[in-house]
Amino acid sequence: MEKNTNNVNYELLFIIHPDLENTIESVLTKTRSQIEKRGGKITYEENWGKRKLAYEIKKCDVGIYLLWFFDAPTNSLQKIEKDIRLSEEIIRYIIIRAEEKTKKVSTKKEIETKEKKTVKKIVKSAPKESEKDRMKKIDEKLDQLLSEEASKK
Q: Where are the domains of the chain?
């Protein structure tokens, strides 16, 4: 029975202990080398920064979140996972098989730019009316509501 050695795309989300914020580059280098020595190749890295955890993990209520995509042979995934699990710097991790369409992740700047463009389109498409017209419509609506209240009594 031969093991499958095809490279597969994986997504790795991990949380680093917050006290290691100043030495994060050495932790990342160590984790990178663990993946690469098992035949993996990192294709995308994104640092999400320090965030509050939903619950306390190893006496920490915050952690440094990182998202990586990497290609690796399927037979080396267990060894990569073991290396990460034994790392004291990483307090929590998850590795999942990534689909091709999720391999391209939008960065925070790309998302913010798209949101700004959407807001600008909405603002441009909104009908422009003068302050006087707007106030007149509000007065008419108020008069209508007051007359309905008066007729009920």
A: 7-102, 108-152
For 131, other C-beta atoms within 10 Å of its C-beta total 7
Task: Spell out the residues 6+ positions from residue 45 whose beta carbon is closer than 8 angstroms to its own.
Answer: 28, 66, 67, 68
Domain with residues 7-102, CATH architecture: 2-Layer Sandwich (3.30)
Model confidence, pTM: 0.61
Which one-letter amino acid corresponds to residue 39?
G
107 phi/psi in degrees, rounded to 5: -80, 165
The reported pLDDT for the residue numbered 131 is 81
Q: Rounded to the nearest 5 degrees, what angle is found at the Cα of 27, between the Cα atoms of 69 and 23? A: 130
pLDDT of residue 41 exceeding 80, the answer is yes
| Residue whose structure tokens are 């267990």 | 78
